[in-house]
């Protein structure tokens, strides 16, 4: 009988291609977003940190929309284990991000407050990003 696993232990793989057309524009009637300028594998930990920063500041989940999801499990063998005997257990989760992809969008916030928050997040992320806006000329 064939047994299915809910989440397979995948290989990390390379992030192929120069820029992404998928998730590259602002949707959901949002005014601001954060766009990547580099291919990267982002850990779920960073996404949770952004979400916690936002909730501490604004206390409303409905004003932020994440467009990426950490769905690739990265495995790691425990320390002092010999080679062989299969693949290790899942250690953490990552999401592959292509250059030009929008990480998240913010809406229903004033211009100054949103820009200040996005600049704060921009410093905390381990890769280069750019603030994207819809109607404003900054």
Summarize the model shown.
The protein is α+β, with helices and mostly antiparallel strands. The protein has helices at 44-58, 111-124; strands at residues 32-36, 40-43, 64-66, 72-76, 89-97, 102-106, 129-133.
Describe what this molecule looks like in 3D.
The chain is α+β, with helices and mostly antiparallel strands. The chain has a single domain, classed as Aldehyde Oxidoreductase, domain 3 (Alpha-Beta Complex), CATH 3.90.1170. It has helices at 44-58, 111-124; strands at residues 32-36, 40-43, 64-66, 72-76, 89-97, 102-106, 129-133. The strands form two sheets. It has a four-stranded antiparallel sheet, covered by helices on one side. Strands 2-5-4 form a three-stranded antiparallel sheet. The radius of gyration is 18 Å and the shape is elongated. The model has no long low-confidence stretch (mean pLDDT 83).
List the helices and strands and how they pair.
Blueprint: E1 32-36, E2 40-43, H1 44-58, E3 64-66, E4 72-76, E5 89-97, E6 102-106, H2 111-124, E7 129-133
- Counting DSSP H or I runs of 4 or more residues, the number of helices is 2
Please report the first level of CATH classification, the CATH class. Answer: Alpha Beta
CATH superfamily: Ribosomal protein L16/L10
Integer count of domains = 1
Strands ordered across the widest β-sheet: 3-6-1-7
Give the helix proportion (percent range): 10-25%
Structural class estimated from helices and strands = alpha+beta
Question: What sort of overall outline do the alpha carbons produce when their principal axes are compared?
Answer: elongated
Major sheet: 4 strands, antiparallel
**Beta-strand segment tally:** 7
* CATH fold descriptor: Aldehyde Oxidoreductase, domain 3
Low-confidence stretches: none
């Amino acid at each position: 009988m064939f047994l299915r696993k809910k989440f397979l232990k995948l290989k990390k793989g390379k992030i192929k291609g120069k820029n992404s057309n998928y998730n590259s524009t602002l949707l959901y009637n949002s005014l601001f977003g954060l766009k990547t300028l580099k291919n990267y594998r982002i850990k779920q930990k960073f996404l949770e940190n952004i979400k916690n920063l936002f909730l501490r500041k604004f206390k409303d989940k409905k004003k932020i929309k994440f467009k990426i999801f950490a769905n690739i499990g990265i495995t790691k063998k425990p320390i002092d284990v010999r080679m062989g005997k299969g693949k290790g257990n899942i250690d953490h989760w990552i999401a592959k991000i292509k250059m030009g992809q929008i990480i998240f969008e913010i809406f229903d916030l004033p211009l100054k407050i949103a820009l200040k928050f996005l600049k704060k997040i921009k410093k905390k992320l381990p890769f280069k990003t750019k603030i994207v806006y819809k109607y404003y000329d900054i």
